[in-house]
From TrEMBL, chain A:
Single GO MF descriptor: acyl-CoA dehydrogenase activity
Acyl-CoA dehydrogenase/oxidase N-terminal domain span: 6-118
Pfam families: Acyl-CoA_dh_1, Acyl-CoA_dh_N
Species this chain originates from: Modicisalibacter ilicicola DSM 19980
Protein name, per record: Acyl-CoA dehydrogenase
The entry's keywords: FAD, Flavoprotein, Oxidoreductase
Automatic annotation (TrEMBL), chain B:
Protein name, UniProt field: Acyl-CoA dehydrogenase
Cofactor entry: FAD
Domain of life the protein comes from: Bacteria
UniProt organism field: Modicisalibacter ilicicola DSM 19980
Assigned keywords, A-Z: FAD, Flavoprotein, Oxidoreductase
One GO cellular component term noted in the UniProt record for this chain: plasma membrane
Domain Acyl-CoA dehydrogenase/oxidase N-terminal: 6-119
InterPro entries in the cross-refs: Acyl-CoA_Oxase/DH_mid-dom, Acyl-CoA_Oxase/DH_mid-dom_sf, AcylCo_DH-like_C, AcylCo_DH/oxidase_C, AcylCoA_DH/ox_N, AcylCoA_DH/ox_N_sf, AcylCoA_DH/oxidase_NM_dom_sf, Mycobact_Acyl-CoA_DH
GO molecular function: flavin adenine dinucleotide binding; oxidoreductase activity, acting on the CH-CH group of donors
Length: 374, 398
């Protein structure tokens, strides 16, 4: 058992932390959000130059072979800066699926350029009735003469407005699950784009497309195994991002309490606020432990991996909400304003619980496996 | 970073397990499992087994008889001991006064006391708290006046755990009444057989005799029994309290308590089904499990940091707060899991004096008393509210 970072990991942490501090100040962040288009941003290009886009992929897929801890360090730093780039939804999750499932032709077409930062992707899985279950879509895929016809409606597809192609889940004739790659400009895709409350880009998409036969990346057990891996990675990454955002929410709240004068003294002299601040730090440290546990469990056998990741996601979701709500409360009226930067952290901390299964969803997983858990 | 135990650590765990299977007496194990109080003889019988193996003092430097274990190995040892229902080592000698003697004591004091602690020849108790000095320990009033080669000590100590068995006490006394609060305190080692000392039991709300009051009436203590300089006792006291907090997350105990809780919840029925299948109970169980997972990693992080950077700092306050809260929650869930069976109170059984209970009575007998007993966890070693003051001041700079 060892909690220390390797020299490479320390360098990675410093690099991303510095990059985020230099390139994602509140003002720069506002501009990044305003100027988002389909072409990658200058910041994304820098990610590519620094190897951050290749980091979370195996060497066989053209990546740098980073592990869960590397991804954790990157996500924490992105969380600290509230970086409005779809590192997870546009790169890590769809890229992991492609690396696992795509044949050479599709890899050449979509994965290599993804890692080089030329485009982004998105995983279109969520539907009105699916809630957090990924394996039972109402979207259907039927065989046609020379390929597939996909019909259905996806909702809240994160990063769809910035994606060159979508990975779309659909039920096959035998009711097994299939995953298809659909170019964003395919005829029969109708996207309604919007921004989420925490400044992410997303779309609702009506789908009625015909696809060539090789568009089916995988189906059945092979697909479920790859999805399990990608989702575990995504959930662990969200835990790490939350920890980064919680760090800053705690820092900014502490700073505010020391600055803000009321009743002739700084608020930080009030014992009730001191104890609340300590409670925030307790939640942060415990959440950090869970994020580490999740990141370090990604290579375990599936059952153990999923149990620990679910535990971490459930725990971090709750801790993040505590920190978010207290950050607003302790900033008083200021915490209610758009102008107050901590409010943006609070929004992200609350909303990231809605990605890839919230605290209640994952608590149920823990409850279901309570007896067999190691 | 790697959270898997190494093959060496797993081998160490097996070694500890084998030792416990071989050396932990069955009668003692049963009492601990059922939550019965141990006699002095039983405590000593177990601690002598540890001494013989050289495992009584994992926290000591190797040159004084420590084990040289890594923080992870200590963690494994504590976890396995708790899982096997081994008694907790009485901490006042080996884990409290000994580190102070090693750090601040004279060569003579080290030579005399340390081997006696390792051999379980002395039973130490703690003379810290007073009726007027609890969390505000520096407000203590017990005074020691110099008279030649002796101090004459007068005052009252309280919450003296297992003082009824002790022959030695480490004691904070005021040697300079005019000095400011924390100054003017000295650290004395007092033979409990000295004339003028009397020990009276305090019966706690769970009916147990665990703690005592100690009265000191013109007790003559040789000046040679002072550890550190006169007036420097507060330094020793603070050092000791930091050490006390190191293991205070109580991870091994919490894990064992959760296992026991699951066992109880499987055995109890609710609407004709095992209680563990009740959704509302199961959710609380799952939440406790999550907290335990987080606490275990935090504990290991703090241990690793302590290994790399010296004495554990204020972060251990975080562990104390969350660890005590978790253990209290587990004792609460265990009591509630028992339903009406939580009501009977078999005082003689719990005191270890009566063994005539039926199996289905003895299995539940300790839960309620333990629930009340565990309230102490958030009070002793610096109440949790004091811990929060410490974190606010030292970590957050508030």
């Amino acid at each position: 058992m060892d909690f220390s970072l390797s020299d490479e990991q320390r360098m990675l942490d410093e690099t991303v932390t510095r990059l985020v501090a230099d390139r994602c100040t509140p003002e720069q962040r506002r501009r990044l959000i305003q100027e988002r288009g389909t072409a990658p941003s200058a910041l994304w290009n820098t990610f590519a130059e620094l190897g951050l886009l290749a980091m979370p992929f195996g060497e066989d897929a053209g990546g740098l072979g980073g592990d869960g801890i590397d991804l954790m360090l990157i996500m924490q730093a992105l969380g600290r800066g509230l970086v409005p780039e779809a590192y997870l939804d546009g790169l890590v999750i769809p890229g992991t699926l492609l690396a696992r499932l795509a044949d050479d032709t599709l890899r050449d077409r979509w994965l290599t350029s993804l890692l080089e930062g030329e485009h982004q992707l998105a995983l279109a899985w969520h539907e009105a009735a699916s809630r957090y279950d990924i394996d039972t879509p109402a979207t259907r895929a039927e065989r046609s003469d020379d390929g597939w016809r996909l019909q259905g409606r996806k909702q809240v597809v994160l990063n769809a407005p910035g994606a060159a192609a979508l990975l779309v889940t659909a039920g096959l004739a035998d009711d097994s699950l299939g995953l298809f790659i659909v170019p964003a400009d395919a005829e029969g895709l109708q996207r309604r784009d919007y921004t989420t409350l925490d400044d992410q880009r997303a779309s609702d998409i009506d789908i009625d497309v015909t696809l060539p036969a090789p568009a089916l990346l995988a189906s059945g057990e092979a697909l479920l195994a790859a999805l399990g891996e990608a989702l575990a990675l995504g959930r662990a990454a969200l835990c790490a991002e939350a920890v980064g955002a919680m760090e800053v929410a705690c820092e900014q709240t502490l700073e505010y309490l020391k600055e803000r004068q009321q009743f002739g003294a700084p608020l930080s002299r009030q014992q009730v606020l001191q104890h609340r601040m300590v409670d925030m730090r307790l939640h942060l440290e415990q959440a950090r432990s869970m994020a580490i546990l999740a990141a370090a469990s990604l290579t375990l056998p599936e059952e153990q991996r999923d149990y620990r990741v679910a535990a971490a996601k459930a725990y971090v979701g709750e801790a993040a909400q505590f920190v978010a709500e207290q950050a607003i409360q302790l900033h008083g009226g200021m915490g209610m304003t758009e102008e107050c930067y901590v409010a943006h952290y609070a929004k992200r901390l609350i909303m990231l619980d809605h990605a890839l299964g919230d605290r209640d969803y994952h608590l149920e997983t823990v409850m279901a496996r309570l007896d067999s858990a190691a | 970073m790697n959270l898997q135990f190494t093959p060496e650590e797993n081998a160490f765990r097996e070694e500890v397990r084998a030792f416990l299977a071989d050396k932990l007496p069955a009668d003692i194990q049963r009492k601990v499992r059922l939550g019965q109080q141990l006699s002095a003889e039983e405590h000593l019988r177990w601690q002598n087994r540890l001494s013989e193996r050289g495992w009584l003092a994992p926290g000591w430097p190797v040159e004084h008889g420590g084990t040289g274990w890594s923080p992870v190995e200590k963690h494994i040892f504590e976890e396995e001991c708790a899982a096997a229902h081994a008694p907790t080592v009485v901490p006042f000698g080996v884990n409290m006064v000994a580190p102070v003697i090693i750090r601040f004591g004279s060569e003579e004091q080290k030579r005399h006391y340390l081997p006696r602690i390792l051999g379980n020849e002395d039973w130490w108790c703690q003379g810290y708290s007073e009726p007027g000095a609890g969390s505000d320990l520096a407000g203590l009033k017990t005074r020691a006046e110099r008279d030649g080669d002796h101090y004459v000590v007068n005052g009252q100590k309280t919450w003296t755990t297992l003082g009824q068995h002790a022959n030695m006490m480490f004691c904070l006394v005021r040697t300079d009444p005019k000095a400011k609060k924390q100054a003017g305190i000295s650290f004395l080692l007092i033979d409990m057989n000295t004339p003028g000392i009397s020990v009276r039991p305090i019966i706690t709300l769970d009916g147990a005799h665990e703690v005592n009051e100690v009265f000191l009436d013109n007790v003559r203590v040789p000046v040679a029994n002072r550890v550190g300089e006169e007036g420097e006792g507060w330094t020793c006291a603070k050092f000791l309290l930091t050490h006390e907090r190191t293991g205070i997350a109580g991870l091994g105990h919490a894990k064992q308590a959760l296992r026991h809780l699951k066992h109880v919840a499987r055995r109890q029925t609710h609407h004709g089904r095992p209680l563990i299948e009740s959704p509302s109970f199961r959710e609380q169980l799952a939440r406790a499990e999550l907290e335990l997972m987080a606490l275990e990693v935090t504990n290991l992080r703090v241990l690793a940091a302590a290994r790399d950077g010296g004495a554990p700092g204020a972060e251990s306050s975080l562990l104390k707060i969350r660890g005590s809260e978790l253990r209290q929650r587990l004792s609460d869930l265990t009591r509630r899991a028992l339903g009406p069976q939580a009501l009977p109170f078999f005082a003689d059984f719990l005191a270890g004096d009566d063994d005539s209970l039926a199996d289905d009575q003895s299995f539940a007998a300790a839960a309620t008393a333990q629930y009340f007993n565990r309230r102490k966890l958030s009070i002793y070693g610096g109440a949790n509210e004091i811990q929060k003051n410490i974190v606010a001041k030292t970590i957050l700079g508030m």
